[in-house]
Specification:
By secondary structure, this protein is of the alpha/beta class. It has helices at 2-23, 54-63, 81-90, 101-113, 144-157, and strands spanning 71-75, 93-97, 120-123, 137-140, 163-167, 178-182, 185-191. A seven-stranded mixed β-sheet has the order 3-2-1-4-5-7-6, with helices on one face. The longest helix is centred in the N-terminal third of the chain and has 22 residues, at 2-23. Bound molecules: S-adenosylmethionine.
Length: 198
């Protein structure tokens, strides 16, 4: 009788012990499961990684007048250099959105090395699907066609007063309010208008 009670008392913990590691294992995001039946393959980036030169990064942050109260989102953040520089030089908080997981991992290493890991976050996700509503500054180095595709999202999700800076590529009909030239490279600035004005 006594031994039966011990076995019964032990049963729930034995069961939990077997289930816990399985049930607590996080499900991989769809993009991380190539080859798994029924899962979407990782999405191909819309443009390859080409880093913004340091002088141009500095000009972009200056044109956007970045300060420590800003939250800067780099859409297609590559190795993270723009948000890392904004955190290092201005104390801004930053979020990098990047499809390529290897670049996200590189950016995280660089942020730690630069001592700003507590100020920046890198998310491995599609820039068209990311929630960018908390940004006060958005930086872009994409392509003219991607800027145009992105424009409705920027208008819809960003707060009035949010600055957008683009390295090299403009926004077609939406004319920039300022422009800087670094060597032969153009950098453009727009501000999200007050949505109450027509
Ligand atoms: C030209 S690089 C710019 C990198 C960085 N912003 C800079 O200026 O140094 C563009 C980056 O966007 C990423 N990218 C392309 N399409 C993307 C998408 N749909 N969502 C997230 N990242 C994307 C690429 O992997 C690449 O790293």
């Amino acid at each position: 009788m006594l031994s039966l009670r011990i076995v019964l008392a032990l049963l729930p913990s034995i069961g939990m012990g077997m289930q816990a590691p399985v049930s607590s294992f996080p499900s991989p995001p769809a993009a991380a499961a190539p080859g798994v039946s029924g899962q979407a393959p990782p999405r191909t980036p819309d443009v390859h990684f080409v880093p913004t030169p340091t002088a141009v990064v500095d000009a972009m942050l200056k044109l956007a007048n970045v300060t420590s109260s800003d939250v800067i989102y780099d859409l297609g953040s590559g190795d993270g250099r723009i948000v890392i520089t904004a955190a290092q030089k201005f104390g801004a908080r930053g979020v990098g959105i990047e499809l390529d997981r290897q670049l996200v991992s590189e950016a995280n290493k660089k942020a730690s090395k630069a001592g700003v890991a507590d100020k920046v976050t890198f998310l491995s996700t599609d820039l068209f699907k990311a929630d960018i509503s908390e940004a006060t500054v958005v930086t872009l180095y994409l392509l003219p066609s991607i800027n145009l595709r992105l424009q409705p999202k920027l208008m819809r999700e960003l707060k009035p007063g949010t600055r957008i800076v683009s390295h090299r590529f403009d926004m077609g009909e939406w004319k920039p309010e300022q422009e800087a030239i670094v060597g032969s490279v153009h950098v453009f600035l727009w501000t999200i208008p007050d949505k109450r004005t027509p």
